[in-house]
Amino acid sequence: MTTQTFISLRSEAIGGADHVRTPRRPNYNEHHAPNRPAGGQSLFHRGHGAQRDDAGTDDAGVAFAPGHPAGDEVFQRHDPIEPRFGGDPLPADRFEAWLEDYFASPDWADLGLERREVEPLMRASDRSAASLFLALMRAWRSRSGKARLGEKSPLHCKCVRRIAQVFPAARFIHVYRDARDVVASMRTMEWTTASVRDHARNWRKILDEHRRLCHEMPPQRYTGVRFETLIERPEEELRRLCDFLGEAFEPAMLRYHERGPSGFHERESAWKGQTRRPLSNASIGRYRSNLTPRQVALVERLAGPTMVKLGYQPVSGWRTHHPLWVALDAAAHAVRKTRRTLQRTS
Predict the structure, then answer these.
(1) How far, rounded to the nearest angstrom, does the alpha carbon of residue 329 sit from its chain's CA centroid?
(2) β-strand 7-9 against 222-226: which pairing, if any?
(3) Going by CATH, does the domain composed of 7-75+137-345 fall within 3.10.310.30?
(4) For 248-307, what is each residue's pLDDT tens digit?
(5) Alpha-carbon gap, residue 62 to 53, rounded angstroms
(6) Would the pLDDT of 330 be above 90?
């Protein structure tokens, strides 16, 4: 996909001093997906995940970084504020229904936690979105014996305003990447069937929102990271991000591939496996060999203005608006849309 969500909880929020990461998974129910293993999806996860074990325990807060495949997705699909749940905090007579809905969801199943570890924490909460989310974080902290936790949920990139409301001290880091490389990478993922058009529009929509947030939110709370810059100047960018989060930079962050546990499920190796290898710029510009000229032109036609504003220059020239290609792309989209409608109704 185009962004990545990273959440960093200090000790006052969950207690203790250390770091632990939750395993992430692809979101099989949506067309939102992470950037490829050599893409933006894994990069910040690689660098930040290698932080030191004696992290500071002061200045309580939560740091979010909009961005890919998630596990809990609380604010995207299980937010109490949704009409079907009744409000935030959850009304007492809706709490049992919310619990059953969440614990029956794929989001919960893929976390690998035991219900008995989490449910008591949720029942002891005030049933607010913040306390329910932190109950999950505390369960991870208890499982690991650590108090510093890093979490990333892709679809939280669509919930920045809501998360900022729930956690007033939250900080957001948005990792983004060239739209053409995102589309090229997405087309290799087994868990998405979205078209080039769908991926390009999704990239544009999310990055347009990112640009709005850059103007609306204080720079102390929200920042962007250009994947290509992170690859080219990793230490410089990681130092900047550590300053943003109030963390000390550690050289071990650049040696993420030397870590012990992988931090992901075996089935995720196809797109996260490269987090076990040193940094590489091999995925930058990969669209040149993985997309056809017509596909590149389609991405640039749909996302071009936003790409340019973010420093990505179009390469298709006149072909971007070639009448024949525009007509063929529109026809292909109409056919695809009709097929989807028929599949849903059959």
Answers:
(1) 29
(2) unpaired
(3) no
(4) 899 998 988 887 777 677 777 777 788 888 888 989 999 999 999 989 999 999 999 999
(5) 18
(6) no
Q: What contacts 301, CB < 8 A, 6 or more positions away?
A: 320, 321, 326, 329
* Sheet strands side by side (includes 149-151): 20-21, 149-151, 7-9, 62-64, 171-176, 222-226
More confident residue, 13 or 71: 13
Higher-confidence residue of 64 and 18: namely: 64
Amino acid 39: pLDDT: 31
Q: What is the pLDDT of residue 219?
A: 95
> β-strand 149-151 against 20-21: which pairing, if any?
parallel
3-state secondary structure string across the chain:
CCCCCCEEECHHHHCCCCCEECCECCCCCCCCCCCCCCCHHHHHHHHHHCCCCCCCCCCCCEEECCCCCCCCCHHHHCCCCCCCCCCCCCCHHHHHHHHHHHHCCHHHHCCCCCHHHHHHHHHCCCCCHHHHHHHHHHHHHHHHCCCCEEECCHHHHHCHHHHHHHCCCCEEEEEECCHHHHHHHHCCCCCCCCCHHHHHHHHHHHHHHHHHHHHHCCCCCEEEEEHHHHHHCHHHHHHHHHHHHCCCCCHHHHHHHHCCCCCECHHHHHHHHHHHCCCCCCCCCCHHHHCCHHHHHHHHHHHHHHHHHCCCCCCCHHHHHCHHHHHHHHHHHHHHHHHHHHHHHC
| 70-96: pLDDT as tens digits | 345 778 889 999 999 999 999 999 999
